[in-house]
Design brief:
The chain is mainly α. It is about 70% helix and about 0% strand.
Length: about 525
């Protein structure tokens, strides 16, 4: 059935004629394809712009939340003051609520140590309570009937909880269950497609399917943002949070300008009172029950998967022995910083962030306090490396983080961050054999980070298949190692001989007439490992 030449859209209710006055007071757009395009773009911005302010500009999570909360409150006030739907104001409110909703969940997880599982349950309850209160008060949940202040208040409260719930759900599946954002995106896309089929083919209620899709587009947008912003080495397109945010904000602006001029998203009709009240029908209740069963079944499956996934860590209560990879990455980053190579240092920062997020589901349950302490130092490292080119400042922050990592990995009880001065002793006093072991320091030989950097550079070239450049780079190692022999060998002849043997092996592999990429890689990894012990 059509009205005024237009078909009801996904989540659009069957419309009936209303007065011109009520047309003018409608505060939300018609649900067209442009609605969903902008919605996904907004959710992506919610993910990337929050990261841009928090990490790239170094504002930190708390200050970012205060700034975006204030901006959202101001724009929401303006939205309430308008007497009709204004595309620019409405969609600016959605952009800001997407960022703020993301930050609400992030603050709960990172600053309040609330588990993602708890966040999902909490926001589900809050969203359900909002819908119940909305329906009991207004007898409808239709977004085509937002023409009073009370209904608009319920509407924006529901929108806020959908973004917070979508963030928590997406992060739970991607991080805590370690499925990653790409796979999570495909899972969410499949559920959205199923919801569309339920509406289109099986005639499920449009209001019900609309709100389900509205929640699910949040993790879909986050997965898209993660794919675009992550470096190519981690399976993304390498655009970064800044470029991704600019692209999507520009796209939102263009689409909003188009709909402002074309007026294609204006609601010209509102469904009748009888149509609004169909939400009380038996059929609607059955559909809610059916969708609830589907989501409960999905939740049960996820719970079983999580239980199976965590069996291997059930008997662990700390992170001892779990952090060697992160120590190695930070050591490499430190070497690049000391060499004033911030391009490679930031690439390593991307690797650190990606690896830490992907292993959160495994590491965090083992010891919440240790994980939180390390996560805090990682935030400082990422902010420092991405916002400054001061080697001394970055080195100090990395040294502090490494000291926390090393103590935790070694099983030392005190896992709280230490002062910069104490952490710097690990690296700045190579002659002191009493300093604690680190990934860049052989206790008996002192600071070997410069040699590790050369070997890591060579390994990167080998991984790229550029063996010719790797041969050239390894000459620097041979020269530097020979020059340092008179200083290093007297400190610990046994250790020096061991490392010297690994260097001889990798030189032989690289200088062979037909070098093997896998052989060169193994030799380099063995030598790096020997230096780090």
């Amino acid at each position: 059935m059509e009205h005024n030449g237009r078909k009801p859209s996904f989540s659009g209710e069957v419309a009936a004629t209303k007065s011109f006055g009520r047309d003018m007071l409608c505060k939300v757009p018609e649900v067209t394809i442009f609605f969903w395009i902008i919605k996904v773009l907004c959710t992506t911005v919610g993910e990337t712009f929050a990261d841009f302010l928090n990490i790239n500009l170094g504002f930190g999570l708390t200050l970012t939340s205060i700034i975006m909360g204030a901006a959202f409150a101001i724009v929401l006030f303006i939205q309430f003051r308008t007497k009709k739907y204004v595309p620019g104001i409405y969609w600016l409110t959605v952009v800001l609520i997407s960022v703020f909703g993301t930050l609400v969940t992030d603050n709960m997880v990172e600053n309040m140590n609330v588990r993602l599982t708890t966040s999902v349950i909490l926001f589900t309850v809050l969203l359900a309570a909002t819908f119940v209160g909305w329906f009991l008060s207004e007898k409808t949940l239709s977004i085509h009937s937002i023409y009073t202040a009370k209904r608009e208040a319920f509407y924006w409260l529901a929108i806020l909880f959908t973004f917070a719930l979508g963030t928590a759900t997406g992060d739970y599946v991607a991080e805590e269950l370690s499925l990653g954002y790409t796979l999570t995106g495909f899972i969410v896309l499949a559920i959205i497609a199923s919801t569309f089929i339920a509406w289109k083919v099986f005639k499920f209620d449009s209001i019900l399917t609309f709100w389900i899709a509205y929640v699910l587009t949040r993790p879909l947008g986050a997965s898209l943002g993660d794919y675009l912003s992550q470096p190519k080495s981690l399976g993304g397109l390498g655009l970064g949070a800044t470029v991704t945010s600019v692209i999507f904000l520009s796209a939102i602006l263009l689409v909003v300008l188009f709909i402002s001029v074309s007026k294609i998203d204006r609601i010209l009709n509102e469904k009748s009172k009888a149509a609004e009240n169909r939400a009380t029908s038996k059929k609607f209740i059955v559909q809610i029950a059916a969708m609830t069963c589907v989501f409960l079944a999905a939740g049960a499956f996820i719970g079983v998967y999580a239980s199976s996934h965590n069996k291997t860590i059930a008997n662990k209560n700390d992170l001892t022995g779990e952090l060697a990879g992160f120590i190695s990455t930070e050591t490499d980053m430190r070497g690049y910083v000391v060499a004033n190579d911030f391009t490679d240092a930031r690439a390593k920062a991307d690797n650190l962030e990606h690896d830490w997020d992907s292993q959160e589901g495994t590491l965090r349950p083992q010891n919440q306090s240790q994980w939180t302490a390390i996560d805090s130092t990682f935030d400082q490292v990422l902010t420092s490396v991405r916002t400054t080119t001061d080697p001394a400042k970055c080195k100090s922050v990395i040294d502090n983080s490494l000291s926390v990592l090393e103590r935790t990995n070694a099983g030392t009880q005190n896992n709280s961050p230490t002062s910069t001065d104490s952490s710097q002793q690990i690296f700045s006093q190579p002659e002191t054999s009493q300093s604690s072991p680190s990934a860049s320091t052989s206790v008996s030989l002192g600071d070997l980070s410069s040699f590790i950097k050369i070997e890591q550079d060579t390994l990167d070239l080998v991984n790229k298949g550029d063996l010719s450049s790797a041969k050239t780079r390894i000459k620097d190692l041979e020269t530097a190692w020979d020059d340092a022999q008179s200083t290093l060998q007297p400190k610990d002849s046994v250790k020096w001989t061991q490392i010297d043997g690994t260097i001889d092996t990798l030189l032989s592999e690289l200088r062979a007439s037909n070098p093997s990429q896998s052989g060169c890689k193994s030799a380099l990894e063995a030598s790096i490992s020997a230096m780090q012990k």
